[in-house]
Write a structure and sequence with these properties.
This protein has helices at residues 7-14, 19-36, 44-58, 70-84, 91-100, 105-111. The protein is globular. Helix content is 65%, strand content 0%.
Length: 113
């Protein structure tokens, strides 16, 4: 059974990540992909709208700017983790597991380079 799980699924299992937290993690990755993307396929207006929608999940209205760094990613990931479980999560491990699962490969290339 374990061999059927993706590296991300195994990471989620190891760190007791529930479904809601998984969704928040995927949204966090989506936000950072948008922030780091130079070649967004849509218009700048579409990119800004999508970015704003993701930001609403992670920052207050006063804090509009998010620095797309590994440190910021870890901070926001820790905020998610603290809402859902007591097991500490590591951003580098998560990003590697996501990339190994074919997801968020750009994050690995840009945040862990």
């Amino acid at each position: 059974m374990d061999e059927l799980l993706s590296p991300f699924d195994k990471w989620c299992d190891k760190y007791e990540v529930n479904n809601q937290a998984q969704l928040e993690i995927i949204n966090l990755c989506g936000l950072f992909i948008l922030l780091l993307s130079d070649d967004f396929p849509g218009t700048l207006e579409e990119k800004e709208k999508m970015t704003l929608n993701f930001k609403r999940d992670f920052v207050s209205d006063e804090q509009q700017h998010i620095e797309p760094t590994l440190e910021t990613f870890q901070l926001l990931l820790t905020n998610i983790q603290q809402k859902h479980c007591s097991v500490e999560w590591n951003a580098k491990e998560l990003i590697r597991a996501m990339a190994a699962s074919g997801r968020a490969v750009d994050l690995k290339e840009k945040l862990l380079a």
